[in-house]
Specification:
This protein has no helices and 11 strands. It is mostly beta strands and 126 residues long. It has one domain: Nucleoplasmin core domain (Jelly Rolls). The strands form 3 sheets. Strands 3, 4, 6, 9 and 11 form a 5-stranded antiparallel β-sheet that branches. Strands 5-10-7-8 form a 4-stranded antiparallel β-sheet, with no helix packed on it. A two-stranded antiparallel sheet has the order 1-2. Strand 1 and strand 2 form a beta hairpin. The chain starts with a strand and ends with a strand.
Length: 126
Amino acid sequence: MSDINYSFNVALSKAPLVQNFAVSGVTADMAATGLYSVTPTLGTAVTQISTATLASVGLCLARNLSTSTSTSTTVSFGRYIPAATALYETVTLRPGEAALLRLSAGSYAAKAATEGTPLLLQILEG
């Protein structure tokens, strides 16, 4: 039996485009039993996200916890290159949006378009 089982549904209706799709019963295994959960309140400067407590990284849930109604209150998450002090944005989330992704080994960081925007990150051990 797999360690993780997840599903999601998407319903799109923006005339004339109508599309529905579902992903169900996707499974994944964890190499260990670790979980790193953090909710930084981000500013417009890059904030490094340390995964040092995990032996390896695996699935990651990222969610913009802002309750703003402005679509410009985004948070970005992605790879961080320390030598260049650069964030390479992988996902940009509007208020309330979430993303599920599998991380690869490396450094990570996040930033917000608006000061004080909270981001939930839950990273499972690989």
